[in-house]
Amino acid sequence: QEIRKEVQALEQTAREILTLLQGVHQGPGLQDIPKKCQKAREHFGTVRTQLESLKTKFPTDQYYRFHEHWRFVLQRLVFLAAFVVYLESETLVTREAVAEILGIEADRERGFHLDIEDYLSGVLTLASELARLAVNSVTAGDYSRPLRISTFINELDSGFRLLNLKNDSLRKRYDGLKYDVKKIEEVVYDLSIRGLNKEATVGAGGEK
């Protein structure tokens, strides 16, 4: 019961972070990215406190006995942390860095930790979110972002191909990555047909 109560509080904070970050999909939101990321990081302070409290509700050596209770919310928090890091630096967050953002361990031996499969699941959710962002960026007139997202997702896909995924739900989620890659390729293709990718490349080059 106590674990459930803590998990519900975490879910509520995760919803607040998600609502905040969803704003980047609207036109003006793209200009507001640094502000949104800063606010999201403040919310992660609450997440750390809530996870601290959750840790005290069961014996450390029984992590996997109760794992099902918080598995879903932890995967969602990984996705949110990965999304913030991507928006800030357009890089993929490492499992260690997510664990640090959440205030938990990366190493299984050290107690309450970030399970590798939970990390990978969260990263796959990020891919879907970025596919959506690629489409919405074009609507907002940002033509270089989809090209950068395309490069990032293709690298992510190559990384996942190297893994031998045994977990069924993770395999299913990985199958979804193929659709994300395809969706982004269509956006990039559409930009090139309309001659907008040249404009994007010149724009991106000019900013540097």
UniProtKB/TrEMBL annotation:
<keyword id="KW-0694">RNA-binding</keyword>
<keyword id="KW-0238">DNA-binding</keyword>
<dbReference type="GO" id="GO:0016787">
    <property type="term" value="F:hydrolase activity"/>
</dbReference>
<dbReference type="GO" id="GO:0005737">
    <property type="term" value="C:cytoplasm"/>
</dbReference>
<keyword id="KW-0255">Endonuclease</keyword>
<comment type="similarity">
    <text>Belongs to the translin family.</text>
</comment>
<keyword id="KW-0479">Metal-binding</keyword>
<dbReference type="InterPro" id="IPR016069">
    <property type="entry name" value="Translin_C"/>
</dbReference>
<dbReference type="Pfam" id="PF01997">
    <property type="entry name" value="Translin"/>
</dbReference>
<dbReference type="GO" id="GO:0003697">
    <property type="term" value="F:single-stranded DNA binding"/>
</dbReference>
<keyword id="KW-0540">Nuclease</keyword>
<dbReference type="GO" id="GO:0043565">
    <property type="term" value="F:sequence-specific DNA binding"/>
</dbReference>
<keyword id="KW-0539">Nucleus</keyword>
<dbReference type="GO" id="GO:0046872">
    <property type="term" value="F:metal ion binding"/>
</dbReference>
<comment type="subunit">
    <text>Ring-shaped heterooctamer of six TSN and two TSNAX subunits, DNA/RNA binding occurs inside the ring.</text>
</comment>
<feature type="binding site">
    <location>
        <position position="129"/>
    </location>
    <ligand>
        <name>Mg(2+)</name>
    </ligand>
</feature>
<dbReference type="GO" id="GO:0016070">
    <property type="term" value="P:RNA metabolic process"/>
</dbReference>
<dbReference type="GO" id="GO:0004519">
    <property type="term" value="F:endonuclease activity"/>
</dbReference>
<protein>
    <recommendedName>
        <fullName>Translin</fullName>
    </recommendedName>
</protein>
<dbReference type="InterPro" id="IPR002848">
    <property type="entry name" value="Translin_fam"/>
</dbReference>
<dbReference type="GO" id="GO:0003723">
    <property type="term" value="F:RNA binding"/>
</dbReference>
<comment type="function">
    <text>DNA-binding protein that specifically recognizes consensus sequences at the breakpoint junctions in chromosomal translocations, mostly involving immunoglobulin (Ig)/T-cell receptor gene segments. Seems to recognize single-stranded DNA ends generated by staggered breaks occurring at recombination hot spots.</text>
</comment>
<comment type="function">
    <text>Exhibits both single-stranded and double-stranded endoribonuclease activity. May act as an activator of RNA-induced silencing complex (RISC) by facilitating endonucleolytic cleavage of the siRNA passenger strand.</text>
</comment>
<keyword id="KW-0963">Cytoplasm</keyword>
<keyword id="KW-0378">Hydrolase</keyword>
<dbReference type="InterPro" id="IPR036081">
    <property type="entry name" value="Translin_sf"/>
</dbReference>
<dbReference type="InterPro" id="IPR016068">
    <property type="entry name" value="Translin_N"/>
</dbReference>
<dbReference type="InterPro" id="IPR033956">
    <property type="entry name" value="Translin"/>
</dbReference>
<keyword id="KW-0460">Magnesium</keyword>
<dbReference type="GO" id="GO:0005634">
    <property type="term" value="C:nucleus"/>
</dbReference>
